[in-house]
Amino acid sequence: MKETQQTDLKAQNKPWGCYAPTAATRVLRLIAALGISRGQLRKWVARQWKKSGWHFVDYEKQGIRYRLDILNNTTDEKILTSSKIYDKEEIEFLAERGSGLNSCFVDVGANTGYYSLSLAQKGFKKILAIEPNPPTLSLLKNNVELNGLESVIEVMPVCVGEEGDVPFYSTGVLGGASRLAPSASTREITLPSLPLEKILLMQGIDKISSLKIDIEGYEDRALAPFFLHAPESLWPIRIVIEDCHKDKWETDVVELMLEKGYRLVKQTRGNAFLEKDE
């Protein structure tokens, strides 16, 4: 591992509070608190944080503790700087299935944990957070521990797809990785991959209340085999799937789910919301 990556991992693991916002950021935080940090103003606020030298920020929002990497992770930046609740509609849609005694949420492409942490707070009893990218994985585990949710959120460091070792193209920073897009700025690493059905069986999961999947254009390779081969009893009741990279799909997996009996409940600019009967 390169020295810069080792340095980032050490920085991630410092005690909570080491990166608490200072008085100098009060105005930036006030803009977000007043409800006006949106659009171009939000982007300006984010730039000011970064110009002031912030990389990691220890931040609590809506009762959830985060160690945010605002320099390298778009989701983390929005959690800190936006007046809006990030992906509020998606969270609320998935959360409606979280009140049951055996409610289970599966987070495919968990990133640093925003969905998993939010839905744990909403009442899900069991959460499986799947994230293979090493630097992102480290911060995900840290965020789970910061909130004392180790007994609720199980973190699994694998890719979802065909079984075996697969190439994974990483920039070495959070949010900068892909199964599909090698480039001059990425380095290839090899990571384990397992089919979703096998992952669920390994974790003892036999029913899924809600599932979110966001894996940068690889959603079809993860889900299509699952819906073709897994028993219907294992299919999630509600699904949010990122489909803004569907031009990279080999199979239109949203269309496949519709053929399997799902209903398209809502379509946003980046995500499709689907539901099936229990």
| Strand order, largest beta sheet | 5-4-3-10-11-13-12
- Class computed from helices, strands and strand pairing: alpha/beta
CATH architecture of the largest domain: 3-Layer(aba) Sandwich
Gyration radius, rounded: 19 Å
- How large is the count of helical segments? 10
Question: According to CATH, what is the class of the largest domain?
Answer: Alpha Beta
Could you give a short account of the major beta sheet?
7 strands, mixed
Structurally, the number of domains stands at 2
Mean of residue pLDDT values? 91
Structure summary, number of beta strands: 13
The H/E string reads HHHEEHHEHEHEEEEEHEHEHEE
Q: Remind me, CATH topology of the largest domain?
A: Rossmann fold
Could you name the key traits of this structure?
seven-stranded mixed beta sheet, alpha/beta, disordered N terminus, 2 domains, 13 strands, 10 helices, Rossmann fold, 278 residues
Would you kindly provide a written description of the structure presented here, covering whatever features stand out?
By secondary structure, the chain is an alpha/beta fold. It folds into 2 domains: about 5-80, no CATH class; about 90-275, Vaccinia Virus protein VP39 (Rossmann fold), CATH 3.40.50.150. Helices cover about 35% and strands about 25% of the residues. A 7-stranded mixed sheet has the order 5-4-3-10-11-13-12, sandwiched between helices. A 4-stranded mixed sheet has the order 6-9-7-8. Helix 1 (about 5-10) runs parallel beside helix 7 and helix 3 (about 40-50) crosses helix 4 (about 75-80). This is FkbM family methyltransferase. GO terms for molecular function: methyltransferase activity. Keywords: Methyltransferase, Transferase.
